[in-house]
Design brief:
CATH superfamily: Metal-dependent hydrolases
InterPro entries: PHP_domain, Pol/histidinol_Pase-like
Number of helices: 7
GO molecular function, one term: 5'-3' DNA exonuclease activity
Shape: globular
CATH topology: TIM Barrel
Protein name: PHP domain-containing protein
Number of strands: 9
Number of domains: 1
Organism: Herbinix hemicellulosilytica
Largest sheet: 9 strands, mixed
Radius of gyration: 16 Å
Strand content: 15-25%
CATH class: Alpha Beta
Structural class: alpha/beta
Amino acid sequence: MDLYLYETHLHTAEASACAILTGAQQAQLYKKAGYAGIIVTDHFFNGNTAIPDGLPWEERVDLFYKGYENAKKEGEKIGLSVFFGWEANYDGTEFLIYGLNHEWMKKHPEMLEWSIEDQYRYIHEAGGFVVHAHPFRIRPYIKEVRLFPDLVDAVEVYNVGNRNLEFDKKASEYAKKHKLPVTAGTDAHGFEQERSGMAFYKPLKDIKDFIENVKSGNCRLIMNT
């Protein structure tokens, strides 16, 4: 049976200050690696963003969207599906948000004021999906491990950027304990020596299709490629 590989956690230089490849370059890299698609999840304004402060909200959102747009344009040329998401940061606790677009973001300039509880409520009301990214990662920017099993829809249980299998093991045990769906991703910035992601049994039509397959468990985790 054919499997279709998708990257679920990826950053671009247009919007994430820590990324070294543009959206178009990331698309080219993943096409060469045999992936069917990628989900661009740049760091939002409450994280390691490349978008300057002081601009009007809608202009900031448009700039934030550029990494995805450039990846999407390149993907259309080379036959790679590209979907949109983002990574929100709450004092080092990070969440991958799927299922919404930048037009929705433009209507919510107050989102930077949201608590984690607010985020879950408003994202859900709009039909989005919240994944706890690398929940057990330890880094200087992460003050403490904080868990919110009632405020997420799934858990990222394998992340190449963790560089520590113990973090992944704890995440897997946590998801199992709370009966939460699981995801895997590279946390790609452009300098990784290996890649991860998820495999599906048919090509994904859109980001909603991704969400439904994760919810149902109709997919496989890819630990490295």
